[in-house]
């Protein structure tokens, strides 16, 4: 029985026409990488290459499939994941040039010849979690066979694809199926690796029913998908490694399984499709106004609008289309064909129902002024370390900030997976927009993939309405200091004007406290240490004031930003420092400005009295008066829990209170009791 793949010969004309007219640059890139592969030269510049490398590596004679470029094993695994085999197939369809077919065949034969695998080797590698050797790891084998199959669906039409090559190919596919059916551990069930491996097994079993084992393999793959959906995907839709990069790798693999099953009218359990939709909606929640994912937890600065296109068509969701491309993306055309092009075109785009969203299980709070390309955006990380503590960074209470739709405060990225000081640099707390006590990283860094003592989060809080967003979270990462310090960050977005960052430190003795803010590379920052303020400009008209309301020493330092693996660029970071004894607060305002529309924002501290009229100390309560043009706001933040307070002629009860004077009568909110 012939099984339906994502595309077939009947789709070829429509795919070529649409991609050539709408996505000519993507076509050029695919053909360029295929040309290089035809010459045994390899480069990893696809947006979803997990570890990119811009420098081509050429093998003049025999390909060394175990070669490590600059000693980096991630280059080796990228080579063996074989995305170029998929792109050789695409290049053949796009150009009709038979050289791409002969190159596919030559590379296929060479890889098979150089990398034999026996059943005995598979079973004997159990102690290595079935990662037999550098070219036969479970993760890479699952990715590799999917790329081989994608290229195969195109090149099999060529006159050069003989029966002998077909037999060789199917023997290799069968070997991959045998390996992937055996090589699976309980940890894979909890890791993104499991999805990447199972996608390969699922596609083999679905597309090659002539194998005697295919029915059994399909059952195994489905069981694994169900258990992984249960274990790995939070109710809020975030993958439990809490890394946008690997969230999207899992989403990609589950999407291919779900869509291939639909194409072949195979009924997957409901949890698979339902989990996939939640993954898409989490991506929608955290996508930046630029269309890119945040660079937190080993993520690159990757455009995810292609992902949102894919979800919009599959689930017919106008909210996903609203943040996607105007037309169906290049890769999705290969999945959906002409029907998908038309469905995406006819789908009505509508903004998501809520601008600001809290992902409660993963702990991410996303605050927005709206859904336009010019909106303000803030991501606050109030969650725990990722479940398996692999891709997580020491970034508790980190903030990402976009103003007027552009990067302002960002995560510094990942840069490398190679062991050493550079890996440590990008993982520890110092290179995140968070707080540091006594010059010590929050959690205990061991090595590239291991943490010692990690911070544990304290109960978080979230509230949103038309006027404001508020998030609060804390951690006990400094519990092992001689004098332990408890840390809480409170973040209030008074829409659309400003953010107030209130950091609280509970201690008994003297400590050094610091807030770190890392700026995007294109941002210029001028500091005014005498008033603890920095003016950060995106351009001549727009930018951000970062102003310490409480006493702090301001310095500007250099830092590195890594937007892609193997790539880093110099930038600037701002550090606000304060030394104090016992209970301490640091209050900082983040104020977007535009010279033509933004009024000057003046913030000053005010006195606050308790319910019987006694003045509160600054250690217990922060009271602020904020003037914005004709508007006046008052904010009271208790550092000692809820109470009854009198301020600026108002009397309110709670721990965080906001008053706006916009007209005849004040508007009041108890942000948090």
From TrEMBL:
GO terms for molecular function: lyase activity. InterPro entries: Chondroitin_lyas, Hepar_II_III_C, Hepar_II_III_N. The keyword 4Fe-4S does not apply. Its main location: periplasm. Residues 352-580 form the Heparinase II/III-like C-terminal domain. It is found in: Periplasm. The keyword Signal applies. Residues 44-303 form the Heparin-sulfate lyase N-terminal domain. This is Oligohyaluronate lyase. It comes from Pontibacillus salipaludis.
């Amino acid at each position: 029985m012939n099984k339906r793949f994502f595309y077939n010969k009947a789709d070829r004309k429509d795919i070529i026409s649409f991609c050539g007219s709408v996505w000519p640059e993507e076509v050029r890139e695919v053909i360029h990488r295929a040309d290089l592969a035809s010459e045994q030269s390899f480069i990893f510049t696809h947006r979803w290459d997990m570890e990119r490398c811009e420098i081509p590596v050429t093998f003049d004679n025999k390909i060394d499939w175990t070669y490590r470029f600059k000693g980096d094993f991630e280059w080796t695994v990228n080579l063996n994941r074989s995305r170029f085999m998929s792109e050789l197939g695409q290049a053949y369809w796009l150009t009709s040039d038979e050289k791409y077919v002969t190159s596919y065949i030559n590379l296929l034969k060479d890889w098979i010849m150089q990398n034999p695998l026996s059943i005995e080797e598979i079973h004997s590698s159990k102690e290595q979690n079935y990662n037999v050797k550098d070219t036969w790891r479970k993760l890479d084998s699952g990715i590799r066979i999917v790329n081989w199959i994608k290229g195969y669906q195109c090149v099999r039409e060529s006159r050069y694809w003989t029966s002998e090559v077909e037999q060789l190919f199917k023997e290799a596919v069968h070997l991959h199926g045998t390996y992937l059916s055996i090589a699976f551990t309980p940890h894979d069930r909890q890791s993104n690796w499991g999805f990447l491996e199972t996608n390969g097994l699922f596609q083999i079993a679905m597309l090659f029913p002539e194998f005697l084992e295919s029915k059994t393999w399909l059952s195994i793959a489905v069981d694994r998908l169900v258990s992984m959906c249960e274990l790995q995907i939070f109710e809020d839709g975030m993958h439990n490694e809490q890394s946008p990069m690997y969230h999207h790798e899992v989403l990609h693999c589950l999407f291919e399984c779900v869509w291939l099953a639909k194409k072949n009218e195979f009924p997957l359990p409901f949890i698979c499709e339902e989990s996939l939709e939640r993954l898409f909606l989490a991506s929608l929640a955290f996508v930046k106004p630029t269309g890119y994912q945040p660079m937190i937890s080993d993520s690159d600065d990757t455009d995810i609008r292609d992902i949102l296109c894919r979800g919009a068509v599959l689930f017919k969701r106008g909210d996903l289309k609203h943040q996607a491309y105007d037309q169906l993306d290049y890769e999705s055309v290969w999945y959906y064909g002409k029907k998908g092009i038309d469905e995406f075109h006819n789908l009505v785009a509508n903004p998501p129902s809520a601008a600001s969203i809290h992902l409660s299980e993963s702990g991410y709070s996303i605050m927005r002024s709206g859904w336009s390309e010019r909106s303000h955006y803030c991501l606050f990380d109030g969650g725990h370390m990722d479940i398996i503590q692999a891709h997580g960074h020491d970034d508790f209470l980190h903030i990402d900030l976009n103003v007027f739709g552009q990067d302002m405060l960002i995560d510094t990225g990942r840069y490398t997976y190679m062991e050493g000081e550079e890996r440590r640099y990008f993982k520890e707390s110092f290179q995140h927009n968070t707080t540091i006590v006594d010059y010590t990283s929050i959690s205990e860094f061991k090595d590239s993939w291991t943490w010692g003592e990690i911070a544990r989060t304290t109960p978080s809080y979230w509230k949103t309405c038309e006027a404001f967003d508020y998030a609060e979270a804390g951690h006990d990462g400094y519990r092992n200091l001689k004098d332990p310090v408890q840390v809480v960050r409170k973040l209030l977005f008074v829409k659309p004007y400003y953010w107030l960052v209130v950091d609280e430190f509970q201690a008994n003795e003297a400590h050094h406290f610091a807030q770190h803010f890392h700026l995007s590379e294109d941002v210029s920052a001028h500091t005014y240490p005498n008033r603890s303020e920095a003016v950060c400009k995106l351009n001549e008209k727009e930018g951000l004031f970062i102003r310490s309301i409480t006493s702090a020493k301001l310095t500007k330092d250099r830092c590195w930003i890594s937007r892609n693996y193997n790539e880093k660029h110099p930038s600037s970071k701002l550090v606000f420092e304060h030394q104090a004894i016992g209970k301490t607060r640091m209050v900082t305002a983040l104020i977007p400005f535009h010279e033509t529309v933004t009024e000057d924002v003046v913030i000053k501290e005010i006195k606050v009295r308790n319910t019987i009229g006694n003045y509160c100390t600054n250690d217990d309560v922060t009271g602020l008066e904020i003037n914005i043009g004709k508007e006046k706001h008052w904010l009271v933040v208790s550092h000692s829990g809820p109470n009854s307070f009198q301020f600026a002629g108002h009397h309110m009860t709670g721990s965080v209170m906001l008053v706006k004077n916009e007209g005849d009568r004040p508007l009041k909110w108890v942000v948090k009791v």
